[in-house]
């Protein structure tokens, strides 16, 4: 995996996807159909005011490139109605959720999404090495994100037609 720096403060998701798919940011934005710079949250300051990119747009582009993406949540839960929440904490092959998350992270590559100081941020990962679109490569132990989800990127055998 090669480090790709985000060209602006709202394109971390596109840059992380480009790293995970081994392509350029322009390949992502061309297929998504926008560059993320549309202001959609007028009451917020940059970068939060910009549209940016949604993970579903990245999943769709990944399929076009022949990749599948598998979601791994850091703290999965289930609820019948949005009020009664049951946290899933017991796993037959893992000690706990942290062990589960680390196992997937240490053995795959893809995209990590989490909250930085104030806003959400996306980075690429290859095994336990983080490729941060802000311009750094570092070990997962030095990651300052409050991790929300991990998306494993795998080469797919079926490429959908347009």
TrEMBL record:
Name of this protein: Peptidase C39-like domain-containing protein
Q: Which organism is it from?
A: marine sediment metagenome
